[in-house]
């Protein structure tokens, strides 16, 4: 049986992939809201920080036909266990959109709620 830390690593890595799958969709807002803690901070390059406290700004920034990427790949993935209810995933992301490359480092920090669900607390991308 895998250790608790191994299970946490697997869960938050799967959630991070779900986040990136949502970011590549035409309408990411509903899925990102489901994945997010109510106090989330989403920090994308060349954008103001998005939060759910300013839902109008959040929805405007992510409104359809929002489509950040046609495809993506995560490399150099590291999962850091903060405690049994918090973890952070760091990685390099390589993505494409209209034959243009996007290269960045990323970090997504997750917390586990009382319902057992892992939700984004902070997500940040930094261009390379």
TrEMBL record:
Start and end residues of each DUF4440 domain: 16-120
Gene3D superfamilies found in the cross-reference section: 3.10.450.50
Record protein name field: DUF4440 domain-containing protein
